[in-house]
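Q: Here's a chain of 663 amino acids. Please give me its 3D structure as C-alpha cells.
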Amino acid sequence: MDADKKQTILEKQLKTLSQKIRIDILKKLKNAQIPLSFSKLQKEVLGHNLSTVNLSFHLNTLKKSELIFSSEEGYTITFLGEQITDKILSIEEILNKQKKTRMIRTSKYSKELFDMSKIEEYLVIEGDLERHLARQIAHEVEERLSKTNIDYMTAPLMREYINGVLLENGLEDVRHKLTRLGTPPFEVFQLFDSKNKELTPGGFIKRLGSDVSEQFLLLNLLPKNLADLYLSGEIALLYLNYWSLRPLSLYLNTSTLIDYLFKKYTYNPQNNRNWAESNNLIIHFMDLLYKLSEFYSEDLLLGDFNTHFLSCFEIPKNNSFNFDPLTSQLLRFNTHFNDDKSHLSLGFNNKGELTEDHSILNQTERQFLNSLNLQCRDHIRPLLIFKWSNNLSTDLGTSFLKSFMTDSINGDLYICNNNYSNMLNSTIIQISNPNENKIILDKILMNLHTISVEANQNDSKFLELVQDKLNSIFELFKYKENLVQKKLNSLKQWNFFVSEIFDQKFDEIFRESIKSISFFGLNEAILNHCGIELDRTENSEVFSLKVLSLMKKLIKERNEVDNNNFILSQPHYDSYLKNSWHNGISQYKQSINQYSSRIIRSESNLSIKKKIVLYQKFQKIINGGTLFIEKISEDEVSFQKCLNLLFNSKIRAISFRDCFTKK
C-alpha cells in the first residue's frame, strides 16, 4: 500500500473518530461482554438525551469504517475497533497525566501519586478478574476521574468509583469480592458515645473486631445463598463473629483434666489435703480452663466435676475447706467472655446413695455449693447439672431442690435422669457418653415460622421447604467444619489439646464432632399453618410431630450416607429467640415479643400429667437433646407430687427456670 493511500485511510479513520459520541460507543462495546442492542446502546451512551442525537447515523459511520458490526443479537466491536480504542485510551491517559497530578491517600495512611496500573493489579489480585477486563475497568475509572475536579483521593472513594464501574459492566460478583469490611462511622460514633457503663475500652475494640469478622463470614466465606438464609431470618447461626474460627462447645470429663494436671505437676491424689498443694491445684486447674476458653464460644461442660475434682478436697468430719478461692475464680471466669452469659457448666454425678449424715450431697459438695451461692450475687454463675436419682423424689430431694428455687439460681440448674447415661450442655445438646470427650462443632437452627408463612397452609409445600432448608444446613456444616479445621489445626496450643486432652487424631476430631440441628418458632408455625396451637388439638399435634419426624429421618439418612454425627436437638434460651425477623404483630394480630425455647407453650392449659405425656412424644423424636422447662403450678398439685410425677416419668432432663413460684 502506497503512502498516499495509507494517508487517506488514516484521515478517514480520524474523521470517523472526530466526534466524542463515536468514541463513547466504541468504549461501551469494548467493555461489553455480549452484543448490545440498539436500545441498550442508546441508553448507555445517551442517557436521558435520546432526542438530541441521531444514534443510527453514528453507528452506520462506525460500521462503514469497519470499527463495529451488527447482527441479530446486537452491535459488537471489531478487532480493528478494539485496537484503535486501546490507542485512544492510551492517548487519553497521557493527556490526563499532562493535565494534572492527582494524589491518593492509601488504606495504609500514606499519600502517593495516583497510578492506574495499581487499579489493574488490585482487580486482578483481589477481584480475581482477567487481565484484559481489569485493564478495561481501570481505563474507565481513569476516564471518569479525569472529568472531576478531585485532586486528592482517598482509598474508600477510589473503591466507590471502581465498584460503580464494575456494577455498570455487570461484574457484580467481582464487586462482591472487593467489598471492604468495617463498621459505618455513624455506628462507631454511637458506640463511642454510648452511656453503657459496661463497655470498657477493650470491649469497644472487641465489638468493632466482631463486626468485621461477621461481615467477612457473610460476604467472603459463605456462598451468597447460604448467607442470605441467615440474613433473612430463615436460619439462626450462633456466635457469628467466631463462627468460622472455633467450635460452639466442648465436653470434657473432668477426670481427663485431673489426670493431665497430676501427670504434669506430679500431684499425689492422696496428699491433696495439704492447703498449699490444694491451692496450687486450683490455680493450675483454672489456668487450664482459661487456655481452653480460646477454643469454644458457648460453654465448656465438665462431666463428673464432683467425683473427679471436688473429691480432691475431701476433708475429715467437722473440718472445712475454704472453697472461696475456687468459687471466686469460677465466677470470674465467665467475665472473661464479656457477654453477660455463663460459659462453664459443671456436671454432678450422684449415684443415688445417701451420705452417712443422710444427705444427698457429701460435706465437700455442700461446702462448695454454699460458697458458690454466697459469692454469685453479683456474678454469672456456672450452669449446674445434676444427675437425679430416686432420692430426689424424697423429702430430702424436695428440700435440696427448693434450696435452689431463688430468682438468681433457678435458671442455672438442670436435673438429668440418672437412668440414662447422657448429660446436656447449656445449648441443650446431649452428650451420649459422658466418659468420652467430645467437640460440639455447632448448633444451627431452622426457623419453622418463616417456612409456615411461605407454605401458606400447604402441607406438602411445608415439608418440602423443611427438606430444602435442612439440605442447606448440611451444607453450612461442611463450611463450618472446613473453616474451623483450617484455622485451628495451624495453632500449636490446639494441637496440644487434641493430642493430650482429647486423645484423638487430627483428621478425626471434627468429623466425629457433634453437629446439632435444631429449630425455633415451632408453636408459631403450627398456629399459622393449622390455625390452632399444637397442645390444643390432635391435628396440630400430629402435624408438628410429622415435621420433626421428617427432620429426624433426613438426619439419620445423612449420617448413614456420610458416616457423620448430626443430631436433632431442642431450641434453647439465646438472643436468636428475640432478635428474629417477626418481632411485633403476627398475622393473627397477636403481640409476639420473641420465640420461646419451650416445645409446649407456657400459656398451655394442659395439666402436668398431660404435658408430660405430650412432651414424651416429642422427646422420642428429638433424641439429640431435650429439656422439660414448662411451668409447675402449686395450685394444681403440691411441689412434692410434681417432682414425683417428673422423676417417675421417662423425661430425661428438667430445668427449673421459671417453673416454681414461691408464695
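Q: Can you summarize the key feature?
A: The first strand starts at residue 68 and ends at 70.
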